[in-house]
Amino acid sequence: MYKLVQINGGVCASDGFFADGISAGLKANAALDMAFIYSEALCEVASVFTTNKMFAAPIKHFRAKGEFQTNFILINSKNANAMTGKAGVTDIDEVLATIPNVTNPLMSSTGVIGVRLPKKKIIAGAKLFDFTKREPQNAAKAIMTTDTFSKQMAFKVELADGTYFHIGAMAKGAGMINPAMATMLCFITTDANATASQMQEILDAVTVTTFNAASVDGDTSTNDTVLLLSNKKSAAFDKEAFKEALHNIMHFLALEMVRDGEGATKLVTYKVTGARDDKEAEVVAKALSNSLLVKTALFGEDPNWGRIASTVGASGAEAYEETLSIHFNDLCVYDKGELLFNAAMEDKAAAVMKLAKFDISCDLGIADGKFEAYGCDLGYEYVKVNADYRT
Amino acid sequence: MYKLVQINGGVCASDGFFADGISAGLKANAALDMAFIYSEALCEVASVFTTNKMFAAPIKHFRAKGEFQTNFILINSKNANAMTGKAGVTDIDEVLATIPNVTNPLMSSTGVIGVRLPKKKIIAGAKLFDFTKREPQNAAKAIMTTDTFSKQMAFKVELADGTYFHIGAMAKGAGMINPAMATMLCFITTDANATASQMQEILDAVTVTTFNAASVDGDTSTNDTVLLLSNKKSAAFDKEAFKEALHNIMHFLALEMVRDGEGATKLVTYKVTGARDDKEAEVVAKALSNSLLVKTALFGEDPNWGRIASTVGASGAEAYEETLSIHFNDLCVYDKGELLFNAAMEDKAAAVMKLAKFDISCDLGIADGKFEAYGCDLGYEYVKVNADYRT
After folding, report:
1. Is A183 a catalytic residue?
2. Is the pTM of this model over 0.80?
3. Span A267-387: which CATH code?
4. 3.40.350.10, 3.40.50.80, 3.60.70.12, 3.30.1490.20: which CATH number matches A2-259?
């Protein structure tokens, strides 16, 4: 028995963690653009990175370390430090060498690809860091790119024996959010007494149904990163409780990212059931969340269930017109070969489409495979944001 | 030795073929919305259909026939006759039974999914058909949906011995154009002395590098159809000449479809070389032509080569930052780990992006695999066209 209590504080909700955001002049108008996370005690680290083969310099820098403990992460927005070759990695070493009193410091970046880090600005900015600050909201704002709101969540986890630990997180998303991870950065801190290998196992499992089930546009970035740090300030740990808390945090942040997808006005959960197996259900759910025709129909609030059926058929998974059924929330719009759609139903379906959040469920009627994926609509604003991202 | 002479006439360029388009009131404003192709002599048939498992009623109707010869195709726009179950097929039989003097008649449809055929209108419309008409332009217009221009091409193929044959085609495309075929219909006639099996072999080979290399939005429709009919009015045939003429026609029509992609303003050829093998080159080329981030950058005329690199890395194909090079036409913007981009080059690259047609070339620097794919940009107009397609 354990109890999850949602609390404030983001990455500073865990004992012994400090964080803040500052302006280094990377963004215009003195907006916050650099953040740090600092821990008094050294932390064990679990991680998930992008599957993109052009993974960015901060990921190379991390992977070169082998086993290590750290107490510091520097995060910048506006520059991804990707496609910058060996120089990208030495740039990180140069920047991090200027930070006093840190051990095995890490760096994480998001922004434009293919431009060297503005080292001078970043080194000058880092001099403003104050490791006694607990300003998680500033940190969460500083890591934003095209995000329109910051994303944080934290829990106090109370165990049956009266002990407890904390787990808190911040994330950024918005563009390039994709089933194979996203241009998303997520930093999670905990004071639980959890080792790197314990955390890694749980993190890998939770990623599948949270960040890897969320899609904005089907593109996978060079910089996707999830870092989970434990400083073991608390003696408490319980695997199931930790997993549930981590799942709740990552599920919430994944949906927040989709809801804040560039130009998104709707958050849709694609519930696929009855597939040949879970893998095929995942293929179908992700095909739906990534289909341009489905996404534009959502934007137009057009209950075009034919595009849903067509996308199921095009996904590559086993599927039959005669066994498929489709629901918009509880409204059945197509049932195993039966055309149910008429003017009255069209009105009801259109009413569902006007909601900010709803489910589209597809039962393939074959076996027991199931998967849920999360997607958004695609409208003019997505085009606007992405037509000239660099300027 | 042979010679290809481009001629007018579309599907009527081949001897003994007739075609016309009429208005049956399916589209508004008395626009042309039904077409026929008729041959005096019975034709052998080769075909390629969608890979979508929810394939439409006309494809079920065709596949139920086994081996056959035909002299007639009825084509309607505005209604796809897809997801209409067994009734969709009997609707076709009912419609075709009203057409006099045809043998094994075929039907082909494009438009909205999940609505029964408007049989009365279609049967009344078919009574307007006049099998002595040669109005290929009317036929090509009648099969359009969101296309903004009609698409036709034809050749006279002159062989070394003085004999000759013709091959002519019309197509429609616009939305749901995709590497695994498209919502595209293409009808090709020839008077060459070619059997169904000879034509099928050539058609399958040519499809890979033409229609299956073209993408507008990565969605694969329920209705994609290519039909190739030979009435053998000419005694002439030469396999190589036929293949080259068919390739030229299908390549031209594929590019016309991409150029006329919904809201498209640019036609981009993605030339991928140096991949581990041709299959991996195809994966990369199609990933580029389908990437939303690449497509919106094209629309914004933003020479964002970092998104190209990121998409290559995300494609799943073997790729390395240190061996990749990227060109916009002849301009090298990234060379095997070297960041070449500066303000002067940015101006040059931006000038390429302003062209209506250009190449983006990626050499992966691994082995000899290569593939070319064709794509377009994605702008506000695509969203507009697709946000409420059905109204």
Report:
1. yes
2. yes
3. 3.10.20.340
4. 3.60.70.12
